[in-house]
Amino acid sequence: MAETAQTLEEQIEFILSLKGDWDGEGSPGYKKETIDKALAYIPKVKELILKERGREVGDPQVTQGPYGSIDLDWGDKDSEFRMLVNVPEKDKFPEIYYNDAQGDIKGNLVTIVEF
Question: Is the pTM of this model over 0.90?
Answer without folding.
Answer: no
